[in-house]
Protein backbone atom coordinates (compact mmCIF):
# COMPACT_ATOMS: atom_id res chain seq x y z
CA UNK A 1 0.00 0.00 0.00
CA UNK A 2 2.88 2.34 0.78
CA UNK A 3 4.18 1.97 -2.78
CA UNK A 4 0.77 2.87 -4.21
CA UNK A 5 0.63 6.07 -2.17
CA UNK A 6 4.11 7.01 -3.36
CA UNK A 7 3.18 6.29 -6.99
CA UNK A 8 0.00 8.36 -6.77
CA UNK A 9 1.93 11.22 -5.18
CA UNK A 10 4.53 11.12 -7.97
CA UNK A 11 1.83 11.06 -10.65
CA UNK A 12 0.12 14.08 -9.08
CA UNK A 13 3.45 15.92 -8.95
CA UNK A 14 4.11 15.12 -12.61
CA UNK A 15 0.67 16.38 -13.60
CA UNK A 16 1.19 19.55 -11.57
CA UNK A 17 4.56 20.20 -13.17
CA UNK A 18 3.18 19.39 -16.63
CA UNK A 19 2.25 23.02 -17.27
CA UNK A 20 5.87 24.05 -16.90
CA UNK A 21 6.93 21.26 -19.24
CA UNK A 22 4.33 22.40 -21.78
CA UNK A 23 5.72 25.94 -21.69
CA UNK A 24 9.27 24.67 -21.99
CA UNK A 25 8.31 22.69 -25.12
CA UNK A 26 6.69 25.71 -26.83
CA UNK A 27 9.91 26.93 -28.52
CA UNK A 28 10.39 23.41 -29.93
CA UNK A 29 6.82 23.24 -31.25
CA UNK A 30 7.30 26.69 -32.81
CA UNK A 31 10.47 25.51 -34.56
CA UNK A 32 12.70 28.04 -32.79
CA UNK A 33 15.01 25.42 -31.26
CA UNK A 34 15.41 21.65 -31.34
CA UNK A 35 16.45 21.39 -27.69
CA UNK A 36 14.29 23.32 -25.22
CA UNK A 37 17.22 23.77 -22.83
CA UNK A 38 18.92 26.02 -25.40
CA UNK A 39 16.09 28.56 -25.59
CA UNK A 40 17.48 31.59 -23.71
CA UNK A 41 14.12 32.97 -22.45
CA UNK A 42 13.06 29.80 -20.67
CA UNK A 43 13.61 28.25 -17.25
CA UNK A 44 14.05 24.86 -18.93
CA UNK A 45 17.84 24.74 -18.60
CA UNK A 46 17.53 25.51 -14.89
CA UNK A 47 15.10 22.63 -14.30
CA UNK A 48 16.59 20.11 -16.75
CA UNK A 49 20.32 20.69 -16.30
CA UNK A 50 20.74 22.61 -13.06
CA UNK A 51 22.01 25.78 -14.73
CA UNK A 52 22.24 28.30 -11.87
CA UNK A 53 19.99 31.35 -11.86
CA UNK A 54 19.31 34.07 -9.33
CA UNK A 55 16.08 34.94 -11.15
CA UNK A 56 14.23 31.63 -10.82
CA UNK A 57 12.73 30.11 -7.68
CA UNK A 58 12.31 26.38 -8.20
CA UNK A 59 8.68 25.24 -8.15
CA UNK A 60 7.73 23.14 -5.08
CA UNK A 61 6.41 20.34 -7.33
CA UNK A 62 9.76 20.19 -9.08
CA UNK A 63 11.58 20.07 -5.75
CA UNK A 64 9.30 17.23 -4.64
CA UNK A 65 10.43 15.02 -7.55
CA UNK A 66 13.51 14.12 -5.49
CA UNK A 67 15.68 15.50 -2.74
CA UNK A 68 18.68 14.99 -5.02
CA UNK A 69 19.21 17.67 -7.70
CA UNK A 70 20.62 15.30 -10.33
CA UNK A 71 17.65 12.94 -9.94
CA UNK A 72 15.17 15.86 -10.22
CA UNK A 73 16.93 17.04 -13.35
CA UNK A 74 16.81 13.54 -14.87
CA UNK A 75 13.07 13.26 -14.15
CA UNK A 76 12.45 16.67 -15.70
CA UNK A 77 14.45 15.77 -18.82
CA UNK A 78 12.37 12.57 -19.09
CA UNK A 79 9.22 14.69 -19.04
CA UNK A 80 10.63 16.78 -21.90
CA UNK A 81 11.49 13.73 -23.98
CA UNK A 82 9.18 12.61 -26.75
CA UNK A 83 6.72 9.93 -25.70
CA UNK A 84 6.63 6.68 -27.67
CA UNK A 85 2.84 7.18 -27.67
CA UNK A 86 2.23 10.16 -29.97
CA UNK A 87 -1.06 10.90 -28.17
CA UNK A 88 0.97 11.77 -25.06
CA UNK A 89 3.74 13.68 -26.81
CA UNK A 90 3.33 17.33 -25.83
CA UNK A 91 5.22 18.38 -28.96
CA UNK A 92 2.28 17.51 -31.21
CA UNK A 93 0.02 20.44 -30.41
CA UNK A 94 -0.52 23.00 -27.69
CA UNK A 95 -2.79 21.84 -24.92
CA UNK A 96 -2.08 18.15 -25.25
CA UNK A 97 -0.86 16.23 -22.17
CA UNK A 98 2.86 16.03 -21.53
CA UNK A 99 4.66 12.78 -22.22
CA UNK A 100 4.40 11.01 -18.87
CA UNK A 101 5.59 7.59 -20.00
CA UNK A 102 9.27 8.13 -19.23
CA UNK A 103 8.80 10.42 -16.28
CA UNK A 104 9.43 7.90 -13.55
CA UNK A 105 12.03 5.71 -15.24
CA UNK A 106 15.20 5.25 -13.27
Give the helices and strands, then pairings.
Layout: H1 2-29, H2 44-49, H3 60-63, H4 69-80
Quick description:
With 106 residues, the protein is mainly α. The protein has 4 helices and no strands.
Low-confidence stretches: 91-106
Major β-sheet profile:
none
Strand content: under 5%
What is the residue-mean pLDDT, rounded to a whole number?
76
Total number of beta strands? 0
Percentage of residues in helical conformation: 40-55%
Query: How far is the N terminus from the C terminus?
Result: 21 Å
What is the CA-atom radius of gyration, in angstroms?
Answer: 13 Å
Q: Descriptors for this entry?
A:
single chain; 106 residues; globular; disordered C terminus
Summarize the structure in words:
The protein is an all-alpha fold and 106 residues long. The protein has one domain (12-106). It is built from four helices and no strands. It has helices at residues 2-29, 44-49, 60-63, 69-80. It is globular.
